[in-house]
Amino acid sequence: MDWNFSTAEQLAAALRAGEVTSAELTDEAIARIERDDDAINTICVPDFDRARAAARGADRARARGEDRPLLGIPVTVKESYDIAGLPTTWGLPPHRNFVPAEDAVQVSRLKAAGAVVLGKTNVPVGLQDVQTFNGIYGTTNNPWDHRRTSGGSSGGSAAALASGFGALSIGSDLAGSLRTPAHFCGIYAHKPTLGLAASRGMVLPPGPALPVEHDFAVVGPMARTARDLTLLLDVMAGPDPLTLGVAYHLTLPPARHERLRDFRVLVLDEHPLIPTGSAVRAGVGRVADALVDGGARVERDSPLLPDLTEAAVLYTKFLFSGSVARFPVEAYEQLQARAAGLSADDRSLDAARLRGMVFSHRDWIEANSSRELHRHGWRQFFAEFDAVVCPITPTPAFPHDHHPDLMKRRIDIDGVEYPYFDQLVWAGLATMPGLPATAIPAGRSPEGLPVGVQLIGPMFEDRTPLRLAELLEQKIGGFQAPR
Description:
The chain contains 15 helices and 17 strands. It is of the alpha+beta class. Among the domains are: 252 residues, Amidase signature (AS) domain (Amidase signature (AS) enzymes); 68 residues, no CATH class. The strands form 4 sheets. An 11-stranded mixed beta sheet has the order 1-3-2-8-10-9-16-17-13-11-12, sandwiched between helices. The relative contact order is 0.13.
């Protein structure tokens, strides 16, 4: 039997029943990677010898009567996570030889749960792109069309899952880095509530692995089914023990509903700052139709929804304020001069990016106060709704674009070009207030490319969008292997 596209849940059941061993699963996964990955380039740092040893250890543990959530299941890990003995570069050539001495918290949790780590997956330079390519490991292609990107920054993980290289992966998300690759590659991903899962050990090399509280960035699970997302999130969830002094497991509240007809959902397919392409609009429509058919209460607008334009501008300022922290003084002063020359009534996203790059602490405090008002607005919204369905980006996967100046790149939306980074506004809708968001497959474009949507839920109620994802998977189908 070919186990490569089996779910983690199926593999766990087969391992428990003695239908297959972890050693067999691992050998099969490695054989598939060695056969197929040259054309896609997902596994940038293989760790096959240690994976085989871990698989044999998992089989011995099972023979002793042990059973853990991921015991013996082959998985991959985004390159940006520290794994002792393997390079962590973030795609940055100056750090190609940096090898950390200890595992990231989430890698430790994977291993404690019994997972077999096959290796690390490719990333963009510094994790700062919607595509995955760098000067060390090259370009990761979309498994559905090698001329197109797999997304970023967890593009290697998404492409690996779509290609059958392991049952699960862990990634991260600051600007859609879990959700966009899932959308482009036709898989599932979950951006957890901000602060839900510890991220120590996913740090720009060669920095020390400190228990830092990130402003936007989260770590989260990627899989080929919604139920597998929940399985992996349960392994990942919980704060860093270094911040508490003790090991601690966080118990999330249950999903608000178990049946589709009990959900109250707002469906959005239009943003005031960027159009939604026809293929993505159709994907949102398919999900909306499934919700209506399943008896859910579906609305298309609500006065409770926080202002989308203000949210996008705030998000853009926050996002780019962190991007220049290590700029040379001369370059930073040039940005300050450019920002000073902006018209006071320029409310474009380009202007927001520039203003964010030169934020003062006073500016940040003011923006953070606005963010708290948005969070309050979302709390009021989620008293009346359970989830929002909306795009992840305006288009399916686009052709590789390696123009060195990201600000000069453009995104083609139904034949009209827009600034490359404007496509991040949908990802920012959940990121800016720190809300959980689950990316799900929602069919394919006329060209046969995957199309995904995101289900945004209430803060720390991650199980609500995850349950909705599971119900929609039953209704409209889920992952399909590329053909």
